[in-house]
Every structure is written in C-alpha cells, then in structure tokens.
Design a protein that fits this description.
The protein has 355 residues and is α/β, with parallel strands linked by helices. The protein is built from 12 helices and 13 strands.
C-alpha cells in the first residue's frame, strides 16, 4: 500500500466503514485507526487487534482526538440525523485542517443527483428533493468544498446501492422482504436501473483514489459493471436464496398496499414516540399484544413504500468512467457472484435457513 501515515476510518462499526477498516488492517495492521460512535458499536472491528478510538462526530473534542496524528481520513460515519451528517462532517473537516491532513475522503451518495434520469457523470448538478439523506449529503459536500478552498485536500466519493455481507438495507433488508411473501416482481414499477456495487469493489475504488497521484480535490462516482433492473435484482437475489419463484404484482395492487401502509407507519411512529413505555409494558404482560405488534412491524417493514416505487422506476445510470481513467478503478464482482456471496453470508449468520 502506497498511502503514507495512519488512516482514520470513521463509522468503522458500520457496514462500509467496517469493511474499509478491515481491508486496511489486512494490508497493514499498523496503518488503520478505527473510529466508532460508541464502544458498543466496536464489536465488528474489535475482532481484529486494530487501534480503536471513540469518535462521536458531533463531539468536536472527540473528533479532534480521533484526527490527531493521522495523515489520511476516510469519513464514512453519518449518524441518523441531518445534523450528524452536516455538522459531524464539518467537525472532522475543521480538525483535519488544523492537523494538516494530507487527504480527506468523504463518502457521499449518488442520491445527491435526486431524480435525474439517463446517463449521469460527475458534471451533473446536485438536486435537492426533500429527501433527508440526499439533501444532507449535498450540504456536507458543500462544506467539503469550503474547506478545500482553505487548503484541505478533499476527495468526494459518490457510490450508488452498496450491497454484500453486513449490509442491513440492501442485503439483509431485501432478503427479509423476499422471505416475507409480501414482495414480488412489480409490473411497470420495478423496471428502473438498479445501480449496484459490491462492497469489496467499493473499498477497492476508495483505496485506489486514495493511492492515486492523479487524484486530488475532486468528485468521483463509483459503480458496478452491470445495470440490472430492480425487478431483475429481486429475481436474481431470490434465486440465490433458493426461494420459490416470485409472483408478479400488478401496479394497482402494489399502489393500494403502499398507500394503505403509509398511515399505518405514521400512526406507528406517533405511538412509539408518545406511548413507547406503555406499549412495551402491555406487550410484556399480554402475549397476544406482543405477537400482534411483531406481526405489524414485520408487515410494515416488508411492504413497499410509495418512495420505493420512485426509486425502483428511476432510469439513472451512474458512470464510473472518471475513476477508471484517473485511478484505474475496475469492478471485479459481477452481480451473480455478489448475490451468491451475500446469500452465503445470510445463511452463515442465520438470517436465512440453509438449504
């Protein structure tokens, strides 16, 4: 590895940050510093004897301590709020500028392009759509550009759908939906492009950008080599899990279920916010109530949302040609291989039954 000095990986207890920290450790055990939000989130990186530090990015003191003595930062932590994405990133940028960090890599998302369609590269404008995550990443990217003008070398990475072992959303979450019987092939609503990148390809791309002498303060899209539709992704993942063939769901039925689910989700959020203690007490003393609540939660999690269909019908194709030209990035894992490895992991950890 050509990178000089120690590398701080924020969000090392999470899906992407955990993979990056582990891969760096396997390449050079003394090179990586794994930043975690709290010690309870250190379970995964603690499997290796790598350096672990507390790094609540909303705490300027913790952020400064985590940054002290490192030469490069790969910022994957995002937290659950808009504030953590924007202010947390700004705290790290300020500490990095003071410390003279050589390269700050910020993990953004292709969601900054909003609902743009067609072939998209880094020259396309960012578009706010009201999506909390995508809009917050746009503002965090702006903070990165601000600090780049002050002399901090910043590289912004925009990945699309990242899947593979340890992915809660696009691997375990999709598997749960496929297993539920509530999912299927969404006729006319799942034919948008599913831009997929397997986790190890994303890690390889980020490290290639960090290593490249031709990459400085710039923006890069990283994407996989294939462009299946969402329906094809569901079909292929379903097959990798060895499940019965998915049924075709007509648009009217899918929309009706999605519309019916929205008020139920709103009511559930309201009840949890106002009566969580009472609900837990009732569930603890009345088994049928506990069973009902579990079934309701399972149904809501595995029923498509209206926002899902907006994503599943989007025809954007994100181009990684710039990263390939300047950093030699080339994804190696095709979708079939990635899904087989994902399914094997799900079986190993007991999230799906072994066949």
């Amino acid at each position: 590895m050509a990178i000089d000095g120690k590398i701080l990986v924020t969000g090392a207890g999470g899906f992407i940050g955990g993979w990056i920290a582990e891969c760096l450790y396997m390449g050079d055990p003394g090179r990586v510093r794994a930043g975690v939000h709290r010690w309870s989130g250190a379970v995964r990186p603690a499997r290796f004897p790598m350096e672990l530090v507390l790094c609540d990015i909303l705490d300027p003191v913790q952020a400064a301590c985590a940054v002290h003595g490192v030469s490069n930062i790969i910022h994957c932590a995002k937290g659950a709020s808009r504030e953590s994405i924007i202010l947390g990133t700004r705290n790290l940028l300020e500490a990095s500028l003071r410390e003279g960090v050589k390269r700050f890599v910020f993990l953004s998302t292709t969601e900054v392009y909003g609902n743009s369609q067609g072939k998209i590269d880094e020259t396309f404008p960012c578009r706010k759509t009201g999506n909390r995550y995508g809009d917050a990443k746009i503002d965090a990217e702006q903070a990165c550009r601000e600090f780049a003008t002050k002399g901090l070398p910043v590289t912004i990475v925009r990945p699309p759908i990242v899947y593979g072992p340890f992915s809660k959303t696009w691997t375990a979450g999709i598997a749960q939906r496929l297993l539920s019987g509530n999912w299927g092939i969404f006729k006319g609503q799942g034919d948008g492009i599913c831009n997929l990148i397997y986790i190890t390809d994303l890690v390889d791309g980020i490290l290639a950008l960090l290593n490249s002498t031709d990459v400085h303060e710039d923006v890069f899209i990283l994407n996989g080599s294939e462009a299946p539709t969402w329906n094809q992704y569901f079909q292929r993942f379903n097959a990798a899990l060895g499940l019965p063939k998915l049924r075709v769901i007509e648009p009217g039925r899918a929309n009706l279920r999605a519309h019916l689910g929205e008020p139920a989700r709103s009511l559930a959020r309201f009840a949890k916010g106002r009566f969580e203690k009472q609900i837990k007490n009732a569930a603890a003393h009345f088994p049928p109530a506990k069973q009902f609540l579990k079934q309701l939660e399972r149904t809501l999690k595995t029923t498509p949302r209206l926002s899902d269909f907006d994503l599943f019908s989007r025809t954007a194709l994100y181009s990684a040609q710039k990263a390939e030209a300047l950093a030699g990035f080339k994804p190696r894992i095709d979708v079939e291989t990635g899904l087989q490895m994902s399914a094997a992991w799900l079986r190993q950890v007991g999230l799906v039954e072994s066949g």
